[in-house]
Amino acid sequence: MSKDIQLLAISGSLRAKSSNTALMSAIIGLAAEPVRFSVYSGLSELPHFNPDLDVEEGPSAVRELRKQLKEADGVLICTPEYGNGVPGSLKNALDWIVSSGEFVNKRVAVVTASPSPMGGDKANASLLLTLNMINAIIVDQGIVMIPHIALKMDKEGVITDEDTKQQLLAMLASLAQPNSLE
After folding, report:
1. CA distance linking residue 43 with residue 21, whole number of Å
2. Which residues contact 95 (CB under 8 A, 6 or more apart)?
3. Residue whose C-alpha is closest to residue 125's, from 145, 108, 105
4. Model pTM?
5. Whole-angstrom Cα Rg for the chain
6. What distance in Å separates the CA atoms of residue 53 and residue 50, rounded to the nearest whole number?
7. Which tens digit of pLDDT belongs to each residue from 63-98?
């Protein structure tokens, strides 16, 4: 019997009708046993990062984020690009993790989706810089940029583009591999 693989999904968007949150849900729907997802929903609850507050206990919202990351075998991040970069709320969450180390040797996949033809490439690159600095392991096929997202998903959040679906299935398979570094 194989052990369940616990993945944490994080959307970098706070918008209720975010295409990246819908995409994240669609990816979760593609997952098969033994992969199990939980969704981090506390992004808007995190206080602005302040090193003076980054003490052993820290704010409760930060403790909850760290707990969920620690319990996860891997992390899926789906994010839009705002102003040629990572949304501030997502960057804020990552700043809270720099000193505590929950991403060290953690398997991660990064998906950016955008209505633009670039697919959120600048947010993707910026996010990868941060994740590499905090020693996350970006899995093979774990960097996905999806341009023209509205043409690749329907209004119900179903992935309609077969190439995109296959790319996401390959990313999921890679993310679900056991972590030999833990």
Report:
1. 12
2. 49
3. 145
4. 0.95
5. 16
6. 5
7. 999 999 999 999 999 999 999 999 999 999 999 999
